[in-house]
Amino acid sequence: MHDPGSYDYAVIRVVPRVEREEFVNAGIIVLCSARDFLEARIELDEPRLLALAPGADLESIHRHLASIPVICRGGDGAGPIGRLSARERFDWLVAPRSTVIQTSVVHTGRCTDPAAVIERLLDTMVRAAK
Questions:
Q1: Which residue in 1, 5, 40, 82 has the most C-beta neighbors within 10 A?
Q2: In 1-130, which residue ranges form alpha helices assigned H by DSSP?
Q3: What is the Cα–Cα distance from 37 to 33, expressed in whole angstroms?
Q4: Verdict on whether the full-model pTM lies above 0.90
Q5: 18-46: per-residue pLDDT in tens?
C-alpha cells in the first residue's frame, strides 16, 4: 500500500446568473501530484439547474463543462493549456472567474487513492442525497 499523498480539489459549479451568485455543483477536480493524477468528473443535475434557471443554455453549459476533463488529461487535444504541467493546468482551471462555469476555493487533503477521493467528493458535494 502507498503512503498517503496530499491532494488538492475544487468543486465545479454552474452559475447560470452570475449577478445572483446562485450555483449548482456540477463536478469535482482532483490533483494528486504524488500519484501523477489530475482528473475531473462532471455530473450535472439538469433538473436542479433548470429549477434554478429555467432558461439556462444547457448545450453551451455541457460544452464548457466537457472541456474541463479534456484539459485535465492534457496533450494536444487540450490546446496550448494541454502542454502545461498538471499543476499548471489545475491552477488555470481553478483560477477565479466571473463566468457561468466557476470553481470553489481549493481544498486540501491526504489520500492513497485519488480516484476514490473523486467518488467520495461527488457523493458528498455533487450528487443529490438519496
A1: 40
A2: 46-52, 58-73, 86-94, 114-121
A3: 6
A4: yes
A5: 999 999 999 999 999 999 999 999 999 99
Cβ pair 14, 100 in contact under 8 A: yes
Domain that holds residue 93: 43-113
Give the strand pairing for 107-111 and 5-14.
Answer: antiparallel
CA separation, residue 130 to residues 72, 124, 126 (Å): 29, 11, 12
Number of domains in the chain: 1
Asked if the structure places residue 15 within a domain, the reply is: no
- Measure CA 96 to chain center: 13
Q: Which residues contact 30 (CB under 8 A, 6 or more apart)?
A: 7, 8, 9, 37, 38, 39, 40, 114, 117, 118, 121
The single-letter code of the amino acid at 32 is: C
User: Residue 19 falls within a domain, yes or no?
Assistant: no
User: Cα–Cα distance between 4 and 121 in angstroms, integer?
Assistant: 17
Band the pLDDT of 3: cuts 50, 70, 90: confident
DSSP helix/strand/coil, 50: helix
Grid coordinates given for 113: 487513492
The answer to the question of residue 120 being in a domain is no
Candidates 28, 23, 31; CA nearest to 6 is: 31
